[in-house]
Design brief:
Distance between the termini of chain B: 10 Å
Number of strands of chain B: 0
Strand content of chain B: under 5%
Helix content of chain B: over 70%
Oligomer: heterotrimer
Strand order of the largest sheet of chain C: 8-9-10-1-11-19-12
Radius of gyration of chain B: 23 Å
Largest interface: A-B, 45 and 54 residues
Number of strands of chain C: 21
Radius of gyration of chain C: 23 Å
Structural class of chain C: alpha+beta
Order of helices and strands of chain B: HHHHHHHHHHHH
Strand content of chain C: 15-25%
Structural class of chain B: mainly alpha
Helix content of chain C: 25-40%
Number of helices of chain B: 12
Number of helices of chain C: 16
Shape of chain C: globular
Distance between the termini of chain C: 25 Å
Chain lengths: ~325, ~325, ~525
């Protein structure tokens, strides 16, 4: 690209030349190149253009680190009771204070991150896998579609929290059961999404061509359809993760979730609610962590959606 | 149009059948002995045997399912193992507070969220828009009970503007009834408002790009007229859809809100039932609310015909 | 106008206002002043005080059913439904005459046959009742207002048995209801007491409503605990169940409820600061926290395992978890209420002094604990049980035991603890509760101290030594003999670990300043309580 000075020099020449023939009107000076736009390349550029992903991703990463590194971040055993030092306000010794049994809330919140993030992640993963399978089958195999979608509609008609509660009522409270219960409630949403993607892809010429060429259905699904579902599914998975974390907190809050012996953000808030008026920090800290994490995951989802395919905005 | 209505109504029957089948089968796919689960934690082995007989586990599954559906169609949702009252009675005793809460939340949420979404779309990409959308994401993220406690603390305890808990029946006066429901409705409605506002904004944005809007503007119609007469009407279908789907959020959130504000509704009944592992009660509640949800969405589907004459599938 | 007619007319006016549709605010304000809203310690899920010995049931039952006798604030039984009693010279024959004009809520008069039937049902479930039954020759109705009880040995505590606070208290029901199997709950709640249960407004888990029974004839004496005239000065009492202490506290401060039975100790400072709320100790006789171990099944069928628990447990931890502030609890190296004449610490060394985890572990090894799960019932909706349960779970973990933590509710606890099945099949190994200090003063109404195996309270401890000392106390001729019997009893109870006392603590109650007449006692007494508008 020519530099501006070169252009001006060129223009000046023209003016000089033009003014020599004085009966010519000088053309207005037009810059023929615009200042170059500096496009930042690479990851940093990408993050700069998509602040939602940057902020959301950073927060999620922080939470993940906190959860993984919990034992080394100045924590003590989160389940040891020590009633002698119960309900201490946050201080240098106990950064988030202690609860009514003397347990260190900072430790409980950090270890609780493991449960909440674990539940969120595994529900997102399992629901995605199951939903993907169901959606692919239902979208591509017309004879299965009607039946499967009716079933999914039915399951979706049950409000997710009630479904999770009903499933938890059948079993003992444990992290595994909570994950299973919430997953079952989230599968229909994912399967619907995958199905709609598949339906729109099914009409594409290259899929028709593959079918005509006699490619096996499985191969078509895996090679042509599946890669196109990855983007919307990833976005949906983040929403499922956020939703799962909130549902887990609610289940634990009403006593139907993780057992009281395992600290989770919902549990800690449930136990702190009797003293909300006098010692709000017991509910406050896990609430902040939960809200920030869910916010971050939602932001991440929004950002991914905008970055991967702006057209997804309509569908999601 | 009648054709459409009838077809839509008929279409809900298989959905309800699936719901019923699913809820019925939950008991049998869960680990453990179904009779022991129904009999509950406090049953003696003799009780469990008695329940096993009444469940008739030796009979084929479909026969049992058919009988159970027959009972439900006659209004018999089973009997609570804890109080020995019919589940239907227990639900009837407590349905008014929950329905009141849901109704007030619905009205509140729609009246707040739709205008907010419209404004956000109108002022797209400005500070207002980003601010509203940020608040919306926040609304999704803070759990219902945290919002509830915050509101109770600030407005009920500190400022003493509203009662902190409880429920007053409608027949004791409109304002007392409403007073008790304002804070819970706001708490419950946060997520709902966020959801509706987002969808309203997204749909409005699309609609505002349309040619007929440009025509309307060219014709000189004022901003308000454009937004509300032309754009919103056309955006109505997805918005109303989301309102319908979001009712599931209300139902689920009512469970927690009622706990925080001590409202003696179905949500509290659910929480008590789960603590006691009173499975028939939970089953009855899940079934009832699923049916309500299906019916509400049916009504909304039927509402489409009023909103958008093009819909005639 | 005599008092009865006055009461009836006032009731009539009040009832009329209550049912007249609450059209204007003035009327509803007046009605509100006639309604007392009370937050009970737990949900009233079922309402049979003989079948279910939980305190919450007894507290409600005290409104609905009357008793033959009632203890006063000195724990001395006074006549209630009985007008006069006659004891034969050899103290073997008791003849009781009922007061005139006693009625049930359905209008039927209270007859001696109703009393006989109620006594029979009560005896089947009550320890003192069983003792009396073992020595009784006959219990018959002589005429409509008189009944006779003939024993073959003297039983000095007969009147205490009939008037005691300890559950099950001896409530008088209609004969047809009392005919229900004592091991099954009643379903009809027609009573003889000053208030009726309003069945149509009873929502288990949410509320219970009691309405004044206009035809109740209270005694003339001033009331004192369960004795004296049970004057009800309000028209309605609404029990509003609030499982969440924060909600109850806020509701009390805002005037949405009038009286809270069990404010948790941590919220007492907040309530104290509130201008319109009065907080006080509920009962100076306090409470003894406890957890019961199941003596029928391993591991706690072995005394070494039980002693291991006592050696390792820290009453300080338990009590702090329950009441927090050190002002409200005392360590209790024994089983009897402190600051009472018979209090003793004899034999309680195992509960005193610094805790020795190693010694406890050695004791546990001695008991051949094989790592089986210990099923712990922890009621989540009752703060005392919940707090103790958490401390226990931690204790068992530190001892290296395998904890099966069952987070259930108080109502389910009542049903489940009655199961004698093995822990893996619906049974239990431990549950947490507490006992009113008023009951633990001496062995007479102290059901929980009995160690007669199958007939004992839940946990079914067996200890001949304990039973022998209880008998010795009953037969003691002087106070010194009583004291030495209690001392030996305490020692035996500690050695055989009848149950595990977690400490002595004081509980509070809180009410609005416009409510008058609330007294300290082991249960909330609603008579004499009035509310200014």
């Amino acid at each position: 690209m020519n530099s501006p000075s070169h252009a001006t020099a060129f223009a000046t020449d023209a003016v000089v030349t033009a003014s020599a023939a004085s009966d010519f009107v000088a053309a207005p000076e037009l810059p023929d190149i615009l200042p170059p736009v500096k496009v930042r390349r690479g990851l940093v550029g990408f993050l700069w253009r998509h602040p939602a992903i940057a902020i959301g991703g950073a927060l999620v990463a922080t939470m993940l680190l906190i959860a993984l590194l919990a034992p080394w971040l100045g924590t003590v055993d989160p389940t040891t009771v020590a009633p002698a030092r119960r309900i201490r306000e946050p201080s240098a010794a106990f950064w988030f204070g202690t609860d009514m049994l003397g347990r260190d809330i900072y430790s409980r919140v950090l270890y609780g991150a493991r449960v909440s993030l674990g539940v969120g992640f595994f529900v997102a993963l399992l629901a995605s896998l199951a939903g993907l399978a169901i959606g692919l089958v239902s979208g591509f195999l017309r004879w299965a579609d009607g039946f499967v979608m009716r079933v999914m509609d039915g399951v979706m008609s049950i409000p997710p929290i009630l479904l999770a509660i009903a499933l938890m009522a059948l079993t003992r409270g444990s992290v595994g059961n909570v994950i299973t219960a919430i997953t079952i409630a989230e599968i229909p949403r994912v399967s619907r999404l995958v199905r709609s993607v598949v339906l729109s892809l099914r009409e594409q010429p290259y899929v028709d061509a593959a079918v005509a060429a006699g490619t096996r259905t499985v191969t078509i699904l895996l090679r042509h359809i599946l890669p196109n579902t990855v983007a919307p599914m990833t976005v949906q998975a983040t929403y499922v993760c956020a939703s799962a974390m909130i549902v887990e907190a609610i289940l634990s809050f009403i006593g139907a979730g993780t057992p009281p012996t395992i600290p989770s953000w919902g549990n800690i808030m449930a136990e702190g609610r009797a003293l909300w008026q006098v010692k709000p920090y017991i509910v406050f800290f896990p609430a902040i962590f939960l809200s920030v994490t869910v916010l971050a995951v939602n932001l991440l989802g929004d950002g991914l959606r905008d970055a991967l395919d702006p057209r997804m905005k309509k569908r999601l | 149009m009648l054709n459409y209505v009838v077809r839509r109504i008929l279409a809900t029957i298989p959905v309800m059948a699936v719901v019923a089948l699913f809820v019925f089968s939950l008991l049998y796919i869960a680990p453990g002995d179904p009779a022991a689960i129904v009999a509950g934690d406090q049953a003696t082995p003799a009780d469990v045997e008695r329940i096993r007989e009444s469940l008739g586990l030796d009979r084929p599954f479909l026969v049992r399912f058919g009988e159970w559906v027959w009972q439900i169609l006659h209004g018999d949702l089973g009997t609570s193992i804890f109080t020995n009252l019919p589940v239907a009675t227990m639900i009837a005793q407590r349905i008014e507070p929950t329905l009141s809460l849901m109704a007030v939340t619905l009205i509140l949420a729609v009246s707040v969220a739709v205008p907010i979404g419209v404004v956000a779309a109108w002022k797209a990409d400005t500070l207002i828009d980003r601010g509203i959308m940020a608040l919306a994401v926040l609304g999704f993220s803070v759990p219902v009970f945290v919002v509830g406690y915050l509101l109770a603390y600030v407005f009920a305890l500190e400022l003493d503007w509203l009662p902190v808990q409880g429920y007053t029946q409608l027949r004791e006066g409109l304002w007392p009834w409403l007073e008790n429901l304002i804070l819970p409705a706001i708490a419950l409605g946060c997520v709902y408002i966020a959801l509706i506002a987002r969808v309203t904004r997204a749909t409005m944005l699309e609609v505002l790009q349309q040619d007929y809007i440009r025509t309307a503007r060219a014709k000189g119609i004022g901003q308000g007229g454009i937004l509300f007469l032309h754009a919103l009407k056309n955006a109505a279908v997805p918005i109303v859809t989301v309102i319908g789907i979001g009712i599931a959020l209300l139902i689920g959130g009512a469970v927690v809100t009622e706990t925080v504000f001590a409202i003696p509704g179905i949500g509290r009944l659910t929480v008590d039932a789960i603590l006691r592992r009173d499975y028939p009660v939970i089953q009855g509640i899940v079934l009832l609310f699923s049916f309500i949800y299906v019916l509400v969405n049916l009504l909304i589907d039927l509402l489409y015909t009023l909103l958008d004459p093009r819909i005639r599938y | 106008m005599n008092r009865r007619a006055f009461l009836q007319s006032a009731t009539g006016a009040g009832a009329l206002a209550a049912t007249a549709g609450l059209a204007t605010p003035a009327i509803s304000q007046r009605v509100a002043a006639r309604t007392l809203r009370f937050v009970p310690q737990a949900d009233l899920a079922n309402f049979d005080p003989i079948w279910n010995t939980q305190y919450v049931v007894r507290n409600g039952a005290a409104l609905v059913w009357d008793m033959l006798y009632g203890v006063n604030a000195d724990l001395k039984p006074q006549r209630q439904m009985v007008e006069s009693e006659e004891v034969s010279g050899d103290r073997l024959t008791w003849t009781f005459r009922l007061r005139p004009n006693l009625k049930f809520h359905d209008g039927e008069p209270v007859l001696a046959k109703d009393v006989i039937a109620s006594l029979a049902r009560w005896q089947a479930r009550d320890n003192m009742g069983l003792m009396i039954k073992a020595i009784q020759d006959e219990l018959v109705a002589v005429d409509d207002r008189t009944f006779r009880w003939r024993l073959n040995r003297p039983y000095s505590k007969l009147l205490i048995a009939l008037g005691k606070v300890g559950t099950p208290s001896c409530f008088i029901m209609p004969a047809r209801i009392a005919a229900t199997d004592p091991f099954k709950p009643i379903s009809d709640y027609v009573g003889s007491g000053p208030m009726k249960l309003v069945r149509s407004e009873w929502v288990p888990g949410a509320r219970a409503v009691f309405e004044k029974f206009s035809e109740y004839v209270p005694r003339q004496e001033p009331s004192s605990w369960l004795s004296g005239g049970k004057q009800i000065l309000v028209d309605r009492i609404e029990w509003v169940v609030m499982a969440d202490p924060a909600t109850a506290s806020a509701a009390l401060q805002n005037g949405e409820v009038d009286w809270w039975e069990t404010p948790i100790a941590d919220l007492v400072p907040v309530l104290n600061k509130s201008r319109n709320v009065v907080v006080d100790i509920a009962d100076p006789l306090g409470n003894i926290g406890s957890f019961r171990m199941n003596h029928l099944y391993p591991p706690f069928n072995n005394v070494y395992a039980r002693r291991a628990i006592l050696t390792a447990m820290s009453q300080e931890d338990y009590m702090r978890a329950v009441v927090g502030d050190d002002a409200y609890w005392k360590p209790l190296p024994g089983f009897f209420t402190p600051s009472t004449p018979l209090y003793t610490e004899e034999g309680g060394e195992i509960l005193k002094g610094p805790r020795n985890l190693d010694a406890a572990k050695r004791l546990l090894d001695q008991s051949d604990y094989a790592g089986q799960p210990v099923t712990c019932l922890v009621a989540q909706d009752l703060q005392i049980a919940k707090a103790q349960g958490e401390v226990t779970a931690d204790l068992l973990k530190r001892l290296g035991m395998n904890v099966d933590f069952n987070a259930i509710d108080w109502g389910t606890t009542a049903a489940r603890r009655a199961q004698k099945s093995p822990p893996g099949q619906g049974g239990w190994n431990m549950f947490h509760t507490w006992h009113a200090g008023a009951v633990c003063v001496d062995p007479s109404s102290y059901t929980a101290i009995r160690a007669n195996g199958d007939k004992a309270w839940f946990g079914w401890p067996t200890s001949e030594k304990v039973e022998a000392e209880i008998t010795a106390w009953y037969e003691a001729a002087s106070f010194e003999e009583e004291k030495s019997a209690i001392g030996r009893l305490n020692r035996a109870a500690c050695e055989d670990v009848v149950y595990a006392p977690t400490g002595f603590f004081l509980a509070h109650q809180a009410w609005r300043s416009n409510v008058a007449g609330i007294v300290k006692g082991p249960l909330p007494f609603f008579w004499g309580v009035s509310k200014a508008a």
